[in-house]
Amino acid sequence: MKVLDCVGREIKVGCNILYAVRRGSSMWLKRMRVQQVMADDGKGNPLLNGFTPDGRRVTVHNLRTVVVIVPLGIQYETAA
User: Fold this and answer.
1) pLDDT tier at 40 (50, 70, 90 boundaries)?
2) Rounded distance, CA 52 to CA 56, Å?
3) From CA 2, how far away is CA 60, in angstroms rounded?
4) Which residue ranges make up each domain of the chain?
5) Is the full-model pTM beyond 0.90?
6) What angle do CA 61, 63, 66 make, to 5 degrees?
């Protein structure tokens, strides 16, 4: 099973991603490097484990708000 971001790109180990964070009424994006892609959390939902640039360990449960960061000039195939 391929794990996809909100625009259809495959999320793989080593990818840099942005994910949405909310505290109260404030929302912002945080960056993370994916260390592990788990296909199932026990309920059939995929999980992402990784680290932020400041070294914090993060687990992302909601992949509807995740997007893979693609460097400029790189062609990235989306899943059809």
Assistant:
1) confident
2) 5
3) 16
4) 16-68
5) no
6) 120
